[in-house]
């Protein structure tokens, strides 16, 4: 199977939401399950495949030195295990190496240099490249263009894999760093992204106008992965306020705008992916 920009392509949904249902403790790095409970990760991947996902995202969103080293494992061990698990579960479907932001601010606002961020991302890419089992790289939930540039460059320098980069926008349509949708679209194309998009932060109804702007701002393939609505705290637990069918209705509206690639972010489960598959096949 190849990454096709002309056909609908369904990515998976949230990993963290599923892991919380499978015993992940608060504050525990989800990536450790690649080493300690690989059968749980494989099972989640398989649930998404059975629901209709054609792209499985590795459990590596936060696989960075600062988070992984205290666990006693190395970044390389965690990533290589994650890719192998995903490949086993995915079968003929695609595997995307998942890369999240560092969680730190780059200079001049923060203390992390561009070069330091680049090296963190390069380490992840090189670890995955050793396995040769990933089909693409998904750089997701970014909000800083310089950090995204470092991540994209690291992928381009250390692999031949296509790279998709998705940003997260706040309710007013700008990232935490103040970039609007059109600015992000232009910059990511210049950096060499093979696909761009929007994920996380808000639900599909709030995301719809951002998606319309993005469609009008780029010729690149677009990936959209909303949250399952807006998060709320109920009895100490984070819950989301949109059901799969309503979620899928907004996905159909985005598809009508020309978007081809879809998945889910925080709060989504295989039921959301099943609903996406159903609405896109109607």
Quick synopsis:
With 282 residues, the protein is α/β, with parallel strands linked by helices.
Question: Would you mind describing this structure in some detail?
Answer:
44% of the residues lie in helices and 15% in strands. The protein is built from 11 helices and 10 strands. It has helices at 16-20, 33-36, 38-51, 65-68, 75-90, 114-131, 145-158, 181-191, 204-215, 244-257, 270-280, and strands at 9-10, 55-57, 94-99, 136-142, 163-167, 195-199, 222-225, 231-234, 237-240, 261-262. The strands form 2 sheets. It has an 8-stranded parallel beta sheet. A two-stranded antiparallel ribbon has the order 8-9. Helix 3 runs parallel beside helix 5, helix 5 (75-90) crosses helix 6 (114-131) and helix 10 packs across helix 11 (270-280).
C-alpha Rg (nearest Å): 17 Å
Overall pLDDT score: 95
Number of strands: 10
User: How would you classify the helix and strand content by structural class?
Assistant: alpha/beta
| Helix amount | 40-55%
Strand order of the largest sheet: 1-10-7-6-5-4-3-2
Order of helices and strands: EHHHEHHEHEHEHEHEEEHEH
**What count of helical segments does DSSP give?**
11
- Give the uncertain stretches in residue-range form: none
- Biggest sheet architecture: 8 strands, parallel
Strand content: 5-15%
Instruction: Give the end-to-end Cα distance, rounded to a whole number of Å.
Output: 22 Å
Shape: globular
Give me some keywords for this one.
single chain, alpha/beta, 15% strand, eight-stranded parallel β-sheet, 282 residues
